[in-house]
């Protein structure tokens, strides 16, 4: 068409999808979205599009972000307000202009409209779906209908968690967000929990920014990857990578889409198992079963009968997919169906194309694709190199994030947060004497007091659940269940 200019992207849709298939760690795509209309979706533009439509905002106290414990969604406040009222609140206005935000001081609270399905927000404006072009990442026909919208203020955050299903593509539209990511092999160091319970989300008990290393000493060795995502950039989060996300600018807007993978089938069995166990135990009457354990994203507690039906459906679906995959010799890559993490109410389209295994592939890192590097190198520096401190946040650091610029000429800067703590029973290198102990073998002199303290520790229902539905345990139980009730090995196709 006359008057239009075709923009050459650094990677074709096929190349982009192939790159993602081979990526084993988070990476940022640059210069891929410059012509996407969604980049005009600032909070002000969204306000004009949505008008008086009310959406749910989550509010948290800023001071609690500095606490040594995560601020879960069950501990937040919630309001139903328009984006216009949200913007008035961020501008310091008051009265009717800010609606329900009037009860919350902007200086004390952050606000977050998270997990907002574009299919539902713009169901009367379906042309908006076409503003998001995930098809350019190799997922034909995928757009805003299969995406979610996030609008927040500085300090708004998502607790550290991993997603049980799929991988994640995140486009930053307005402002910047800082991502703290940890690989799947660090799961034990993140102290996983399913309380609060949310299907497909495994939360961490660690406050990533201010970790309590006395309670969670293994977190000291976690391999942290940090990136500050800028407008126009797309972050790829591989399957089962842990992430804590925080807004670092006054107003942020982002759009994401969860991409289903064929290997998610067994994870769905595991999630069905988890839901069955958690609901059964937390629904039982008990003196310590009085906590607010169901995440606000979950509608209600389902009955045991419903959960068992869901479990049987998941097992049958896995068995059917196994038979189909074995017959067609498909590889476990991006799934046939690319669905959002939760039911969005929108039509889900299928992708039949796959990235086939072929010759050895070299990931084309460079000005258009940036690897998110591990921050562990500086943690290995000796006390002579850095100022040793017992708190991670008071440790010396130059810049705690990897900042990626959309300008190819700008140098990508990587720096690390140094985590050096003097936790209890941490031994000096080359010595058998511990810093916190008087005994040469590292044991405490006051064994009787230690014994009394340990014997007086009460095991709670949530402690029990943390063991029963630990990801490693659930994975093994799911495998046993599938082997018993389908007669198939979960790792290989039966002939």
Automatic annotation (TrEMBL):
Membrane-spanning parts: none
Principal location class: cytoplasm
SMART domains: JmjC
Residue ranges of domain JmjC in the record: 114-274
Stored InterPro entries: Cupin_8 (IPR041667), JmjC_dom (IPR003347)
Function: May play a role in cellular stress response.
Name assigned to this protein: JmjC domain-containing protein
Species for this entry: Oreochromis aureus (Israeli tilapia)
């Amino acid at each position: 068409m006359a008057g239009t200019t075709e923009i050459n992207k650094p990677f074709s849709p096929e190349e982009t999808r192939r790159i993602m298939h081979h990526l084993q760690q988070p990476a940022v795509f640059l210069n891929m979205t410059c012509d996407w209309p969604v980049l005009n979706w600032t909070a002000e533009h969204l306000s004009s599009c949505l008008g008086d439509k009310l959406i749910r905002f989550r509010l948290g106290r800023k001071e609690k972000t500095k606490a040594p414990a995560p601020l879960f969604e069950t501990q937040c406040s919630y309001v139903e307000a328009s984006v216009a009222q949200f913007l008035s609140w961020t501008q310091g206005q008051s009265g009717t202009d800010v609606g329900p935000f009037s009860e919350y001081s902007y200086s004390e609270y952050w606000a977050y409209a998270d997990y907002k399905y574009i299919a539902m927000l713009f169901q009367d404006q379906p042309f908006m779906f076409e503003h998001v072009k995930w098809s350019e990442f190799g997922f034909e026909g995928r757009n805003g209908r299969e995406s979610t919208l996030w609008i927040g203020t500085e300090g708004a955050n998502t607790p550290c968690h991993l997603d049980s299903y799929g991988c994640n593509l995140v486009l930053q539209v307005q402002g910047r967000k800082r991502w703290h990511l940890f690989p799947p092999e660090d799961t034990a160091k993140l102290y996983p929990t399913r309380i609060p319970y949310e299907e497909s989300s495994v939360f961490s008990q660690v406050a990533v920014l201010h970790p309590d290393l006395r309670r969670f000493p293994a977190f000291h060795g976690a391999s942290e990857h940090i990136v500050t995502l800028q407008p126009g950039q797309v972050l790829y989060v591989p399957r089962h990578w842990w992430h804590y996300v925080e807004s670092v600018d006054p107003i942020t807007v982002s759009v994401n889409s969860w991409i289903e993978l064929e290997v998610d089938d067994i994870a769905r069995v595991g999630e069905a198992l988890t839901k069955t166990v958690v609901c059964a135990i937390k629904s039982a009457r008990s003196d310590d079963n009085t906590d607010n354990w169901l995440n606000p994203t979950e509608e209600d507690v389902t009955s045991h009968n419903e959960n068992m039906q869901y479990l049987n459906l998941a097992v049958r679906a896995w068995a059917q997919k196994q038979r189909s995959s074995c017959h067609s010799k498909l590889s476990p890559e991006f799934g046939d169906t690319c669905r959002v993490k939760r039911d969005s109410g929108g039509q889900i389209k299928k992708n039949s194309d796959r990235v086939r295994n072929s010759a050895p592939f070299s990931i084309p890192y460079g000005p258009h694709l940036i690897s998110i590097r591990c921050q562990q190198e500086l943690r290995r520096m000796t006390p002579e190199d850095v100022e040793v401190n017992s708190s991670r946040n008071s440790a010396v650091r130059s810049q705690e994030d990897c900042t990626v610029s959309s300008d190819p000429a700008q140098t990508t800067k990587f720096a690390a947060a140094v985590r050096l703590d003097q936790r209890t029973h941490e031994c000096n290198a080359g010595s058998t004497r511990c810093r916190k102990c008087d005994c040469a073998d590292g044991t405490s002199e006051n064994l009787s007091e230690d014994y009394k303290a340990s014997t007086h520790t009460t095991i709670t229902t949530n402690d029990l659940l943390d063991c029963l539905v630990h990801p490693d345990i659930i994975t093994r139980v799911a495998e046993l269940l599938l082997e018993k009730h389908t007669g198939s090995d979960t790792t290989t196709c039966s002939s």
